[in-house]
Amino acid sequence: MYEQLCKTILQKPVAIRTIHQYLTEKQEDTPTCILRHDVDRQPLTALNMATLEHSLGIKASYYFRFIKGVYIPDIIKAIHAMGHEIGYHYETLSKCRGNHEKAIALFQEELTTFRSLCPIATISMHGRPFSPHDNRNLWQKKDFREFGLAGECYLSIDYRKVTYLSDTGRTWNPHRYNIRDQVKQDVDLQPNLESTNDLISFLDRGHYRDTCILTHPNRWASSKGAWLYSASSDFIINQGKRVILALRRP
Ligand SMILES: [Zn+2]
Asked: Which residues surround ligand 1, an ion (CB under 5 A)?
């Protein structure tokens, strides 16, 4: 299904570019399509996805968490060697339970470890749905550019101009299960999509403007057993999110 999505995009008059390219290179007339991946767990699925994209001549952006089982240097280096962008999927404010000073120090430490593997120019926050801390708040008192970074995925992109589509909650519907990965966006920029087939026909209808498609590779398993495992854990997490969203409603 993901291959079909990539092939659909490749047929369109859009340029697939990494987040770093989008933020630093001059925008030409051709609209940009960004393929962003947040690697939350199961980094092998990211390696599969990166290999598929590489075989199609696509360069995407991969954001890795710094946790056991995800930060695997050999996988990160292999994806970087294919020409993809590697970014840091940080969550130090929730790791440090809201202690800002400790979270900044840990951010610096983890970023330095990532940079021993390959260049890191952009970051994206990990939106832990069950943590009270929003990792983006790390930048309320500090500027990420002090760390030699060109951008933060939620803060550096103007989502009034870029259509943002995310697979969070195993649906392209932006409201159902999405607690943290949200961006502020006009309704006319956010199409009402559910399945990847919906997304493909949306692109086929001629959506030629800047777009960022966020996928979590662990949701896109390549074997049936792995898919079933990933789909059922998403189901359980979605039930938890349903409770949180219901409690938030007035
Ligand atoms: Zn994440």
From this structure: 38, 40, 126
Please state the pTM of the whole predicted model: 0.87
64 CA to middle of ligand 1, Å? Answer: 8
In degrees, rounded to 5, the angle at the alpha carbon of residue 227 between the alpha carbons of residues 223 and 232 is 155
Instruction: Give me ligand 1 centre to Cα 186, in Å.
Output: 23
* pLDDT tens for the chain, residues 1 to 250: 999 999 999 999 999 999 999 999 977 789 999 999 999 999 999 999 999 999 999 999 999 999 999 999 999 999 999 999 999 999 999 999 999 999 999 999 999 999 999 999 999 999 887 788 999 999 999 999 999 999 999 999 998 889 999 988 667 877 665 556 667 666 566 777 888 999 999 898 887 789 999 999 998 877 666 666 666 666 666 666 666 666 676 6
Which overall architecture, per CATH, does domain 2-248 show? Alpha-Beta Barrel (3.20)
Distance (Å) from CA 29 to ligand 1 centroid: 32
Report the separation in Å between the CA atom of 27 and the middle of ligand 1, taken as the mean of its atom positions: 28
Domain positions in the chain = 2-248
Query: Separation of 129 CA from ligand 1 center, angstroms?
Result: 9
